[in-house]
Amino acid sequence: MKRLNEREEQIMQILWRVKNAFVKEILAEMPEPKPPITTVSSIVRKLETEGIIGHEAFGKTHRYFPILEKSAYRKSFFQRMLNNYFGGSPEQLLSFFVDEQDLPPDELNRLLEKIQQSESDDEKQ
After folding, report:
1. At what angle do helices 90-100 and 105-124 cross, to 10 degrees?
2. Which of 43, 76, 86, 121 could form a disulfide with 1 if both were Cys (CB 3.0 to 4.6 A apart)?
3. pLDDT at 80
């Protein structure tokens, strides 16, 4: 799966959140300093050419919507991060969060509960 650059990801985050939008609406959702509308329009057309977003035509204007699902991109993104930064080891990733992110004990307990629930679900199958 294609890795999105910062601006592409920013536009996709907006489209995933609002479901569909015209270029002007995408621009309005972007933080300051806003890029020129022509830049947003170019990125949107590139994403559409790559099959990541689609559009509905309203005369000469287009309303864009995501084709790529956020969950699919997130899975690919984290798999790439796991492989590139943690040697493919979920244990190293979890250790990073535990050791270097100073997670509060309640969040650590929630993580432990999720791990135990996953183990329990695996045993049932």
Report:
1. 160
2. 76
3. 92
